Amino acid sequence: MASEKVLTFSDDNFDTDVLKATVPVLVDFWATWCAPCKAIAPVIDAIADEYDGKVKVGKVNVDDNPGTPGKYGVRGIPTVILFKDGKVVDQVVGAVPKAQLEALIKKAL
């Protein structure tokens, strides 16, 4: 079951919802046909629930929103990028363990 705390980001709202956010933002770049993206989805949901209020968590569908992934050099999916104060803090590519994403988040908190 998907967490209601996972937001949907798009080319249209990315600047406002991610780059101008007052808290760090974890963004999962994904696609519906991507098996590793489906594998990491429960991890993204769990992080959204656990870090609610400290970190915004959301997803960008790369098929529906090609501009944003191109801007950040997303070549493979899933790519998870952590933003803070409008800048990239770090990123990981692939279906990584939850501990690796939590280590990413700790860099921004």
Automatic annotation (TrEMBL):
One of its GO terms (biological process) is cell redox homeostasis. The active site is at residues 34, 37. GO terms for cellular component: cytosol. CDD domains: TRX_family. Disulfide bonds join 34-37. PROSITE patterns: THIOREDOXIN_1, THIOREDOXIN_2. This is Thioredoxin. It comes from Geobacter hydrogenophilus. The gene is trxA.
